[in-house]
Amino acid sequence: MANIKDVARYANVSPTTVSHVLNGRGRVAPETRDRVLEVAQRLGYTASAHAQQLVTRRSRIIAIQMPDLDTNGRGTALVPKSESEYFLELINGAAAAATDAKYALIVVSPGVDASSMRSFGVDGMIIVDPKGSEQFLQSSFADQYPVVTTGEPVVAAARPCFVVDNDHDAAAREIFDHFAAQGRSQPALIVDTTSRSYIRDIQHAYGEWCNDNNVRPAVVAVAEASPTEMGKALASLRTGPSPADAIYTSSDECAIALLDAAREARVSIPDELALASAVDSSILRVTNPPVTGVFLHPRDIGARAVESLTDLIARKDPDCQLPPLESTRTMIPTRVVVRASTATEESR
Asked: Which residues of 263-317 form beta strands (DSSP E)?
């Protein structure tokens, strides 16, 4: 079996140069790199993962931490119930990108601490929907290891981090413009009480849209996405001189519960009330009626988070030749998927 010295001899370079090429380190001329890779492939030589770890001092392991959306504060849920499809798709995208980059990806719960991550020897960390109070953003961990978040921290983090996010503000405005185009004059907003930046963005966009269009804002926050809570929210928004004729919910779970509440209250969707969700999912395609939603491309978010993290890891190498970062934010576009829940009787 060929070894690194065989590759060096046939490529007419030193074993150190072969090591640099195969581990992505050092300054090696492109033609030399190509020759080494061609010889290594011809001889069937592959550097062992353990040897690469010793040379690069990297574990080739990255971690992704799920958010703490558990209202009881225990912080133990690995995958939150709300928008579970979104989170699973995000993890799938991250896992595929990690495999392509030859990294192992471990999924950790919101309760894991920084010392545990150090014991794993991870090279970097992805935090999904951060609050900003996570240990990895407050401790010396962020000084030693690259950190990428999907979504902005709700409160300012002690350490700067790279952010991958959607433009939820623009998506919300597109939904409210869509409501208006369908003849809806009094749109309202229902949000859950979890602390996440995208909900803050939606509320901000709604407030500005109402101000620009001379609409009196109506926002209801619900502790849980149950038909009972949604029934109360619906009743409050449908009473008074200007009842809501359209509602934007912060999640698909809220939208589904609102459908049940509207059916119980004999409020017709979409004839009396249009309904849209800030998070699209497969279940919204098969409800009666199907619900308009904002597709957030969660696989792309997960993949881009891994790509950004591995790029930051590479930049910690003293021999790194990459140019300086132009931005610490990457925005993933959204797509409004219009379905029957926002169609007026005239447009159907």
From this structure: 274-277, 292-295
Q: Which two tokens stand for residue 18?
A: 């072969």
Residues 230 and 190: beta-carbon distance below 8 Å: yes
Distance CA 144, CA 138 (A): 12
pLDDT category, 71, cuts 50, 70, 90? very low
3-state secondary structure of 109: coil
**Per-residue pLDDT at 261:** 95
Find out whether 123 and 315 touch, Cβ atoms under 8 Å.
no
- Residue 294 and residue 297: Cα distance in Å, rounded? 9
132 or 175, which is more confident?
175
- Please give the structure tokens belonging to residue 93: 């995208």
Contact 70, 76 (CB under 8 A): yes
Residue 200: pLDDT band with limits 50, 70, 90? very high
111 contacts: CB under 8 Å, gap ≥ 6: 68, 74, 75, 76
Q: How far apart are CA 234 and CA 239, in angstroms?
A: 9
Please give the DSSP secondary-structure letter assigned to residue 322. Answer: P
For the cut 60, the answer to whether the pLDDT of residue 347 exceeds it is no
Locate the DSSP E strands across 234-291. Answer: 246-249, 274-277
20, 28 Cβ separation under 8 angstroms: yes
Q: Pick 241 or 217 by higher pLDDT.
A: 217
The larger pLDDT score, comparing residue 212 to residue 157, is at 212
**Tokens read off for 324:** 């300086």
Tell me how far apart the alpha carbons of residues 12 and 36 are, in angstroms, rounded to a whole number: 9
